[in-house]
Design brief:
37% strand; alpha+beta; single chain
Length: 104
């Protein structure tokens, strides 16, 4: 097996570190991209096949759950009692948005 020369090794190491430094860790995308910390949401069981989260824009701000944390592959919701529920993305069936027009 040929040995790597020192300059080649340093160049390879610098490339790996450069790529790792520019990645944005934990940024939600896809299914979780519509959720934000502090947002009131409705949580429903989807008949044993997972959970459905609904964001109600323009609706009541005192729903039973609110978003506490959004990770790249999970979401943490807090109930009105203070209990927290961590839901992995593979347990979500859908994340929807319902918009209620102003004045209704």
């Amino acid at each position: 097996m040929p040995k790597l020369s020192a300059p080649l090794f340093i160049l390879l190491l610098a490339g790996v570190l450069f790529v790792a430094w520019w990645q944005v860790p934990g940024k939600p995308y896809g299914l979780l991209s519509v959720l934000h910390v502090g947002q009131p949401v409705k949580l429903a069981d989807a008949g044993g096949s997972g959970y459905e989260i609904t964001v109600i824009e323009g609706g009541p701000q005192n729903l039973a759950h609110k978003v506490v944390e959004v990770g790249s592959d999970f979401v943490v919701l807090e109930e009105f009692t203070g209990a927290q529920l961590r839901i992995p993305v593979y347990s979500l069936k859908s994340v929807g948005i319902t918009k209620i027009p102003a004045g209704k």
